[in-house]
């Protein structure tokens, strides 16, 4: 049996509110008890939270890299380094995300995932792969390599899905030829179909939703807004996602991809229950600013990281985010004026619900996975716990006298 852990003297962020001076107990990777008073557990290793917040761990459902590595580097070492890097910033669970690439490369990434997942002991937990592409609109490809963009090919996606069970999410443009069948098929396999890099209009989004698509990938980025065709206006994916209550959205809340009024607008319309915060981070997350590469080391694009974002060398466009999950939460509070518990929800319970893992992750309650972060008022991470294992600690000390 694993060492039991006890956290005391913390502000626990629970579904029913913040519990001051709370106490919680963990054993065998799960939360076993939560209380507003001390829990007696003489054999447990004790962690004094020193009055800081104790929160469910952050869940990042869209992340490409960090710590100098990209998942598409296709090495186990890269996967583990990215997981370790983001754990230091509060991510306890993540969906490694691919970029548009060849089928062979995708299959290789899926194989590496399975090996890395078994070796991942000190980082954010991998909770499945997110394939971003290659079935996208060329007009909205953004930083996705147009050479690999194509229409959905049933033979290809059925083969990919038959090879593995680790794909949990797939982003595609629903207006493409074959994209409705694609949405129906992947949904029937338990894969979340998400609308991305798309030029669709409202009428196409409605059909997509009827056929399984339920999430808008990085709202505002790589998608259509209002367009005019022969004097008539059409609502794009942005307006559709804001309007349709059934549609979940995710936002890159780095404060740069979306400026403050858009962060406020999304929160005002969709609310904390329908909006997930994502980093969409590339390899330079958690690294000093300067030159970097977007995408794989082999096929990637040279970019420059400055002012907290990656840009094309001529500075004409952004080329990826370098956000970390704790900054997303901090930004929603300080830039968008969202109350702290709601901002935390957008990085915890909401992404858990979108990925249908809310019975295990995303809230502090007995029976849930012991994925915990402890942070101060500015969301600086003091400690990260993944399934009951302390994978990162800054200053908080264990009570070494406790335990047997
Ligand atoms: Zn992405």
UniProtKB/TrEMBL annotation:
Catalytic residues as annotated in Swiss-Prot or TrEMBL: 280 (proton donor/acceptor)
Domain of life: Bacteria
Protein family according to the UniProt entry: Belongs to the metallo-dependent hydrolases superfamily. NagA family.
InterPro entries per the UniProt record, alphabetical: Amidohydro-rel (IPR006680), GlcNAc_6-P_deAcase (IPR003764), Metal-dep_hydrolase_composite (IPR011059), Metal_Hydrolase (IPR032466)
EC code: 3.5.1.25
Cofactor: binding comment: Binds 1 divalent metal cation per subunit.
Entry keywords, A to Z: Carbohydrate metabolism, Hydrolase, Metal-binding
Record protein name field: N-acetylglucosamine-6-phosphate deacetylase
Native source organism of the sequence: Mucilaginibacter gotjawali
Listed cofactors: a divalent metal cation
């Amino acid at each position: 049996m694993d060492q039991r852990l006890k956290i005391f003297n913390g502000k626990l962020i629970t579904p029913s509110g913040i519990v001051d001076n709370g106490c919680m107990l963990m054993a065998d990777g799960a939360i076993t008890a939560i209380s507003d008073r001390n829990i007696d557990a003489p054999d447990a290793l004790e962690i004094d939270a020193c009055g800081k917040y104790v929160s469910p761990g952050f869940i990042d459902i869209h992340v490409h890299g960090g710590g100098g590595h990209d998942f598409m580097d296709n090495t186990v070492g890269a996967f583990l380094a990215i997981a370790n890097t983001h754990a230091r910033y509060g991510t306890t669970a993540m969906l490694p995300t691919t970029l548009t690439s060849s089928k062979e490369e995708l299959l290789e990434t899926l194989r590496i995932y399975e090996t890395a997942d078994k070796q991942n002991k000190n980082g954010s937990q991998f909770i499945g792969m997110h394939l971003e592409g290659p079935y996208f609109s060329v007009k909205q490809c953004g930083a996705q390599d147009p050479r690999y963009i194509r229409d959905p090919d049933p033979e290809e996606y059925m083969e990919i899905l038959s090879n593995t069970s680790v794909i949990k999410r797939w982003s595609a443009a629903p207006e493409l030829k074959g994209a409705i069948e694609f949405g129906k098929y992947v949904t029937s396999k338990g894969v979340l179909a998400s609308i991305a890099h798309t030029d669709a209009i409202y009428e196409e989004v409605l059909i997509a939703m009827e056929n399984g698509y339920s999430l808008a990938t990085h709202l505002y980025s790589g998608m259509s807004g209002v367009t005019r065709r022969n004097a008539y206006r059409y609502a794009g994916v942005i307006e559709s996602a804001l309007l349709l209550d059934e549609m979940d959205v995710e936002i890159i809340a780095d404060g740069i991809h979306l400026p403050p009024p858009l962060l406020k607008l999304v929160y005002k319309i969709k609310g904390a229950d329908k909006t997930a915060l994502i980093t969409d981070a590339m390899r330079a997350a958690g690294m000093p600013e300067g030159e970097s590469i977007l995408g794989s080391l082999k096929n990637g694009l040279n970019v420059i990281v400055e002012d907290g974002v990656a840009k094309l060398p001529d500075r004409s466009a952004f080329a990826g985010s370098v956000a970390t999950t704790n900054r997303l939460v901090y930004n929603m509070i300080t830039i968008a004026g969202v109350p702290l518990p709601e901002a935390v929800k957008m990085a915890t319970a909401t992404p858990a619900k979108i990925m249908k893992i809310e019975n295990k992750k995303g809230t502090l309650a007995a029976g849930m996975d012991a994925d915990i972060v402890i942070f101060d008022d500015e969301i600086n991470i003091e400690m990260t716990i993944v399934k009951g294992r302390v994978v990162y600690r800054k200053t908080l000390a264990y009570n070494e006298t406790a335990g047997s």
